[in-house]
Amino acid sequence: MALLGSVTVRDRQCVAEAGPLSWNITTGLERDQLDGLVARVHRVLLEDPDPPVMPGRMWALGLYKSVVLVLFLLRQNPVQAAAAELSGVSQATVSRRWTALLGAGG
User: Fold this and answer.
1) Residue 65's Cα: distance from chain center in Å?
2) What does the buried/exposed string (b/e) look like for 81-95 if buried means 16 or more CB atoms within 10 Å of the residue's CB?
3) Distance between CA atoms of residues 40 and 34, nearest Å
4) CA-to-CA distance for 15 and 32, rounded, in angstroms?
5) Which of 38-52, 62-76, 77-91 is the least confident region?
């Protein structure tokens, strides 16, 4: 706690200004690859006559972070409860994203 308490306001501002983290370690993809994959997932969901979920219906994580979550599960193979805690959602939400983006057989 003392270590975190010693972080200055300027340090916090630098972290905030750094912008979103790269998802490369989590997903194994570069930013442009991940952007392209999310765009393809969006198109597929829109073209599906009976989609598991519509991209316009924002989930607790949104489509982009939902794709990142599923890639993280595939690449790192954590238990869903750990992935949920890291993502700030419930394990049930993780399970629904898995099913919606990979299908029941994923």
Assistant:
1) 3
2) eebbeebebeeebbe
3) 10
4) 23
5) 38-52
